[in-house]
Amino acid sequence: MNLTCVTPPATPILDVDLFRNHLRIDPANDAEVVNSLPRAVSSYLDGRDGLLGRALITQTWRLTLDGFPSPACRAGPAIVLPLPPLQVVQSITYIDPDGVQQTLQASEYVAQGIGSDDKGKIIPAFGKTWPQTQDFPGAVTVTFRAGYGDAVGAGPQAITQAALLIAAHWFEQREAVIVGNFGARPLPIGAAELLAPYRNFGF
Fold this sequence. Notes:
Blueprint: E1 2-7, H1 16-23, H2 31-45, E2 59-65, E3 79-81, E4 86-95, E5 101-103, E6 109-112, E7 120-124, E8 140-146, H3 157-172, H4 191-195
Antiparallel strand pairs: 1-2, 2-8, 3-7, 4-5, 4-8, 6-7
């Protein structure tokens, strides 16, 4: 299994002006740092390598498999898609036993879990089965779009609030180590608590 980003998010998850208002600073102060932190926190939370293991702003990914899943697999015949929420399955291609690339018609499969916070799945349509493929690594390719939307801040408000808290912490603490101030404690409802319901572990 291999997962490759085809089209990355067009915007960060935080609006710069919202972030400035959260910090309560003059727009002219620390402009370079303030402008960079929304994208930094997006990289920290979003996508395949992000903390949440989900797509926040709309993005397109390509999942490659060595073959279609067997009904005997733990998940049955379903192709489980990472990075919820799923928006749409754009295409499924495969290498047939003769070594020819084929495109599976949309009528041959059903996408489940579109718009859900859970992982999306693709199953054969009623009365259909997955076609045979050549015994070759990456014989099946699924291209799909995922995310809460195109706009900055798309997605649950709790994620946006957590992103603000994390970015504000990075703004205030610009070193890798904090010296002194050992009496500090996390907020009762801080970033970790806000993000916990949206953590998606593994593929």
